[in-house]
Amino acid sequence: AWQSQKQVTGSNKKVQPKKLVIKNFVAPVVTTEQLDELWTRLQQGLSDILQTGDTRNKSSLLDDADNLCIHGDQMELYRKIEQEVKRHMECCSSEFAKKQFPDNTAFLRELADIWGKHSKQTYLIRNIFNYLERRYVMLSHKQLLPLWEMGAATFRRELMCVNNVSNKCVEGMLSLIEQERCGDDIDGGLLNEIITMLRKLNMYNSHFEGPFLTQTNEFYRVKGDIQLNDSSVPVYLTYVTKCLADEERRLRHYLGSSSRRQLIKTVETNLIGSHVKSLLEKGFDSMMDEKRYNDLHVLYTLLNRVSEGAYRMCFFLYTYIKNRGLDIVMNPEKDKTMVQELLEFKDTIDSIIKQSFNSEDCVDVKKKAFEEFINMRPNKPAELIAKFIDSKLRSGNKEQTEEELEELLDKVMVLFRFIQGKDIFEAFYKKDLAKRLLMSKSASIDSEKSMLGKLKRECGSQFTFKLEGMFKDMAVSKDLMLSYKERENEGIDLSVTVLTTGYWPTYPTDSVIIPAQISAVLDKYKTYYLNKHSVENLPGNTPSPFVRSRLRSVTIPLLRRN
Question: What global pTM score does this model have?
Answer without folding.
Answer: 0.79
